[in-house]
Amino acid sequence: MTQSPAPPASVLTAFGATEAPVPLPGGQGSAWHSGELVLKPTGLPQETMWRAGVLRHLPEVPGFRVARPVPSADGSWAVHGWEAWQPIGGSPDPHRADDVIRAGEAFHAALKDLPRPRFLGVRDTPWARADRLAWQETDRAPEFPLLKPLLAARRPISTPAQIVHGDLLGNVLFEPGRAPAIIDWPPYWRPIAWASAIVAVDALCRYETDPALLERWSHLPDWRQLLVRALIFRIATHETLDDAVASEYRPVVDLVLDSA
């Protein structure tokens, strides 16, 4: 993965960073550490401001921790396309999918009263487009043979939606003696169990997790249909789907379709 350029001096000054930035591992290769700050490029400005406002005021409760946003010297949450966050201890462990799902459930319980943010309707990224496809809000689908049986397997569900974290598996940090920390939050307006289904799909496709994971969480409402949508979401984000990538998904697709 290619590391993105470091934040410029003007950004470091605006956020009060006094040390030379050092690249952080993981993610999309875009985060940098400078003293008591983590600096990352911003996405949609409305989303950056909304997320900072939510996480700044989110009460501390058992079950999870969150990194808090850091404002610039003039009080803004973004400067020249960059945002700043407090560092938070811990490391991701994609082999702890059950613990990631539990941390996500605690996080989502704390968000249950938030209204749907307006920026979700205008966000236009590969992930936003794939999400809309999974939920039948668009019919523009990539021509991937692996997608066709998943699209055909969708059925109506009744589980209500709320704001959720759409990429938990690599963004929950574990540290001995402390609650899991949730970082790098891409918000979506979907059922809570959809976020858990993405964790399960990611764990099986990328980390060869025991398929028994799916059964352990089968009590969640509309679980099999949410797994179908999670697979559509992940597969449709790819620009191309060569044999090597398709081979990661195919066993999980077969497993989910056989039980859907």
Number of strands: 11
The oligomerization state is single chain
Q: Kindly, what is the distance between the CA atoms of the first and last residues, rounded to a whole number of angstroms?
A: 35 Å
Taking all residues together, what is the mean pLDDT? 95
Walk me through the structure.
By secondary structure, this protein is an alpha+beta fold. The chain contains nine helices and eleven strands. The protein has helices at 9-15, 45-57, 97-110, 126-134, 147-153, 192-207, 212-216, 223-236, 243-259, and strands spanning 22-23, 32-34, 37-41, 65-66, 69-70, 82-85, 91-92, 162-165, 172-174, 181-182, 187-190. The strands form three sheets. The chain has a five-stranded antiparallel β-sheet with strand order 1-2-3-6-5. It has a four-stranded mixed β-sheet with strand order 4-10-9-7, covered by helices on one side. It has a two-stranded antiparallel ribbon with strand order 8-11. It is globular and about 55 Å long.
Topology, pairings included?
Blueprint: H1 9-15, E1 22-23, E2 32-34, E3 37-41, H2 45-57, E4 65-66, E5 69-70, E6 82-85, E7 91-92, H3 97-110, H4 126-134, H5 147-153, E8 162-165, E9 172-174, E10 181-182, E11 187-190, H6 192-207, H7 212-216, H8 223-236, H9 243-259
Parallel strand pairs: 4-10
Antiparallel strand pairs: 1-2, 2-3, 3-6, 5-6, 7-9, 8-11, 9-10
Helix pairs in contact: 3-6, 4-8, 5-8, 6-8, 6-9, 8-9
Summarize the structure.
The chain is built from nine helices and eleven strands. With 260 residues, it is an alpha+beta fold.
